[in-house]
Amino acid sequence: MEISRRATTAHDPWPEHFAARGHPGALRVGAGAEGVVYRLGHGRVAKVWTGRPPIELTRQVYADLARHRLPFATPEIFEVLEHEGVLVTYERELPGVRMRGTHPHGQFGRELPEHHADALLTVLRGLASVPGTEAMRLLTVQGDDRPLWRGHDRFQDALAALIARAVARNGAALAARVPDFGAGVERTLNALRSLPTGPVTAIHGDLVPPNIHVDAAGRPVAVLDFGFCTTAGDPAFEAAVTAAIWDMYGPYAEEHTARLTRLFTDRLGHSRQALAVYQAVYALISYDLFGMGDDDGHFRWCAALLRRGPVFTPS
């Protein structure tokens, strides 16, 4: 998930590094779970990666996406280098401006802007038109320790195994804030395994507004920051997660999630049950990625999503 650019008094050595490589004036433009991005000029950016991601696998996923005539641009890696043990990719700068401000926690008003709904539908339809590939299946979801699809032939079974690993990590912290936690996990697993096998397509997994760039008319022109939860899977999973995370912390967040869930059910043909199941799944696999206390917004959000969810906590 993207984190906005913020002022810091600490010395940042990367602009000097990029200047020495022929890119004077490099400007930090954003940061997220995967790394920090710098604009280099001349249509290029550099991403300084956190940890040791599977760069060549990610590069293949980008190439798999580029083979299809999508109505928006996707990332392209030109060069991969290593500096003092840190991986750096040089990539194409994507067009447009962020769908919403500079921070994913920025707030919307009560009304759901029509151009935002249209943009989300365009992106979801576009990604759902790309068949899932072997490279996508080999990716690891953030926080996990193995490729999601390893040992599984169905997306739903792969997610069920991921839930088991995620709950085993730190489930006690979540159980302390979600009543009847064990029974809720079992209900979710049973509902997940009962979903029908459908098409397997490209999944971005983190379509928060800053990860969608739009033009002056509000049309989506680029989708960026693949990797947080990128895989191959059921396009209903993408729709469900997008409905939930488009507005996570605003005063009308629950209302927006409900409206987008209805919209994606009506316009994309996904079942409401599948979307409800996948929203509970997302909370269970991502709850501990940033923190596990009341001071962590994502953790609180996941707990609240489970407490009110019709699958995890039926009325």
TrEMBL record:
SUPFAM superfamilies: Protein kinase-like (PK-like)
Pfam family name, one: APH
InterPro entries referenced in this protein's UniProt entry, alphabetically: Aminoglycoside_PTrfase, Kinase-like_dom_sf
Domain spans labelled Aminoglycoside phosphotransferase: 28-248
Name of protein: Aminoglycoside phosphotransferase domain-containing protein
Species in which this protein is naturally found: Nonomuraea maheshkhaliensis
